[in-house]
Amino acid sequence: MEGWICLHRSLISHWVWQDPLTLKAWIDLLMMANIKDSKALINGKLTTIKRGQCMASIRQLSIRWECSREKAKKILLNFESDNMITLSKVIGQKNDKVRPLITISNYKAFQDIYEDKKANKVTTKLARDVATETATDLAHNNKDNKDNKDNNIKSSHFVPPSLEEVKAYCSERKNGIDPEHFITFYQSKGWMIGKNKMKDWKAAVRTWEQRDRKDRKVDEDEEQRLQHGSHWTDHFFDSK
Length: 240
Fold this sequence. Notes:
Elements: H1 20-32, E1 38-42, E2 45-49, E3 53-55, H2 58-65, H3 69-81, E4 85-91, E5 98-104, H4 107-111, H5 113-156, H6 163-173, H7 179-188, E6 192-193, E7 196-197, H8 201-228, H9 234-237
Antiparallel strand pairs: 1-2, 3-5, 4-5, 6-7
Helix pairs in contact: 2-3, 6-7
């Protein structure tokens, strides 16, 4: 397999960094993922494996990661519960054997980072010109509408919070959020939420609260799944 992958430095503050096997598994999935769409015969059915996707049985992954099948299964489910991957089932035409399709979440956003930077260089001059014209217009408008302009700037300009501010807000809400993790996470993203600049960091904290509640629910469901085998992925995790 040729090419390379991007790894952001924020990975060292991510929970996968805490366990060497989990870190190895995550990097391996990134390297296994298709760098472009391709087609393959899966159980006699022509299937398109898209960019950022790969297919591998739990047996194959346990061999690659040098661990038990149960451990490999646990690692995949942890990735899925943190929305790092999506697990889908693919059924062949010749039989009803279920195959796992692994999709890396936000693959393009992270792996196209250098292409994005290259494109940004092309538009830098244009962006500067637009910014200059905008600043000039604001200067003229300020002469007649100073108060209105000041209010607009205050409402539109986002100032990243300090660690102490996040700590105080999380303590007030008693939400159990790690303020340092919150700060590090959004610093690595340039304080962006998806494609948009963050407008309200307190709202982001409240979103993390909701996610944590969902994660705890997922952990409870996963415990039940491991005990009772009620999750549909048990079908393909046991396939060879």
